[in-house]
């Protein structure tokens, strides 16, 4: 029973503001530990319920930050982190040998209100991301990619908006609500130690369901995928020049890019690329 855990930071218990998840924030060192402790609660629950292998992968500020505290993470897992990962960037450890996916510390999609730090992939870059005309968030990318591999999502943790959006995609998953979003940077929080008890219980439920075979992998959206990314700012000269060289991107309007992809690993890479496609001469993605 192999569990893949994607750990993001915006949905970690107790964290509500961008300053909480930015390396310049006053509590960042402590918040890294909180992120690690939420992950540990999921890891511990997974092993308690019968997992034999747990792979953890960082999903926060991937290119610039390594956030999990490696000395504090549960010693039974492995951790995938760092820049330039193969495959779907933040899903490098997700493959068909995985039995169940957990999304720990994840957040609502771009455009959500309330929704603690709601965004899709690039807060600064993207106003909205749609797939076949429907707004999507990071859980959509994970659920669809996992579904392509025949793997179900079993657990999500974050605020109530993340939970609602993820359960709409993956109704057999367990959702653990560690905070009630009041806006985009405020929430009613429960103390993190209590939240971790809930995450551990949720992980036990999720792995138990995986063992029983009652988790259903996502299906229902088929490739090729067509995304629209609405940019916060019109594409500048460098981005326009970069996108002209790439067949899979079409600048439909100054602030609207159409992206196509044959599968969701590539789809994630291509959408994520638009978060840094304004760097002159950068066409690798
Ligand atoms: Zn994040």
Polypeptide structure, described:
With 285 residues, this protein is α/β, with parallel strands linked by helices. It contains 7 helices and 12 strands. The strands form 2 sheets. The chain has a 7-stranded mixed beta sheet, with helices on both faces. A 5-stranded antiparallel beta sheet has the order 6-5-10-12-11. Helix 3 packs antiparallel against helix 7. The longest helix has 21 residues. The chain is globular and about 50 Å long. 52% of the residues are buried. The mean pLDDT is 96. Zinc ion binds next to loops.
**Would you identify the CATH architecture of the largest domain?**
3-Layer(aba) Sandwich
Helix content: 25-40%
Task: Please provide the count of β strands.
Answer: 12
Question: Which topology of the largest domain does CATH recognise?
Answer: Rossmann fold
CATH class value of the largest domain? Alpha Beta
* CA radius of gyration: 18 Å
Compressed to H and E, one letter per element, the order equals: EHHEEEEEHEHEEHEHEEH
Structural class: alpha/beta
Major β-sheet annotation: 7 strands, mixed
Numbering strands along the chain, what is their spatial order in the largest sheet?
Answer: 3-2-1-4-7-8-9
Terminus-to-terminus distance? 32 Å
Show unreliable segments: none
Number of helices: 7
Question: How do the helices and strands line up, and which of them pair or pack?
Answer:
Blueprint: E1 2-7, H1 18-21, H2 28-48, E2 53-58, E3 78-80, E4 100-104, E5 126-131, E6 134-135, H3 138-148, E7 153-159, H4 160-169, E8 174-181, E9 187-189, H5 192-212, E10 225-231, H6 237-244, E11 249-253, E12 256-261, H7 264-273
Helix pairs in contact: 2-5, 3-7
The chain binds zinc ion.
Zinc ion (ZN) binds at residues 8-10, 60.
């Amino acid at each position: 029973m192999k569990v893949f855990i994607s750990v993001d930071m915006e949905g970690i218990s107790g964290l509500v503001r961008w300053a909480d998840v930015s390396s310049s924030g006053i509590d960042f060192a402590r918040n890294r530990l909180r992120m690690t402790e939420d992950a540990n609660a999921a890891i511990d629950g997974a092993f308690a319920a019968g997992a034999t292998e747990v792979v953890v992968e960082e999903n926060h500020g991937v290119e610039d930050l390594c956030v999990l505290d490696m000395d504090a993470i549960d010693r039974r897992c492995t951790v995938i982190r760092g820049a330039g990962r193969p495959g779907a960037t933040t899903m490098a450890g997700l493959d068909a040998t995985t039995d169940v996916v957990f999304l720990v510390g994840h957040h609502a999609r771009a455009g959500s209100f309330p929704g603690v730090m709601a965004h899709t992939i690039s807060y600064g870059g993207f106003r909205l991301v749609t797939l076949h005309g429907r707004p999507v968030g990071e859980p959509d990318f994970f659920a669809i990619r996992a579904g392509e591999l025949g793997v179900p999502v079993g657990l999500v943790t974050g605020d109530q908006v993340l939970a609602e959006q993820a359960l709409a995609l993956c109704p057999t998953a367990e959702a653990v609500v560690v905070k009630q979003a009041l806006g985009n940077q405020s929430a009613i929080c429960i103390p993190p130690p209590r939240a971790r008890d809930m995450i551990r219980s949720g992980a036990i439920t999720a792995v138990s369901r995986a063992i029983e075979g009652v988790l259903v992998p996502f299906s229902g959206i088929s490739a090729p995928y067509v995304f629209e990314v609405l940019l916060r700012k019109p594409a500048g000269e460098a981005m326009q020049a970069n996108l002209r060289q790439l067949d899979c991107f079409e600048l439909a309007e100054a602030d609207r890019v159409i992206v196509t992809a044959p599968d969701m690993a590539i789809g994630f890479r291509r959408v994520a690329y638009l978060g840094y496609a304004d760097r002159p001469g950068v066409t690798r993605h």
